Please model this.
Amino acid sequence: MVTILRPLLGGLLLVLAAGSAEAASFSCEKAESADEKAICAHLPLNDRDVEMATRFEILRAMLPMGGNAKLREDQEAWLTERRACGADVDCLKQSY
Model:
């Protein structure tokens, strides 16, 4: 068990370290919606988006196939909620 967790944790650290240097989890150059534009314009929101995307990918990799469908449904519901915030930075902060 420890031998399995060690590489996973090492990979997680690399992803988290790299995440802070990258842009949001989507292309800011292609951002069209108000929420995406606000995330790209505000570094703290951008950082929260990268962290959320990283956690999502880690969780997706760890769940059995049946769990991935539910996770995807939850992600879509959350994205709908986030989009409803529009460019309201305070609302977007709360969504993360």
Q: What stands out?
A: The first helix runs from residue 2 to 19. The radius of gyration is 15 Å.
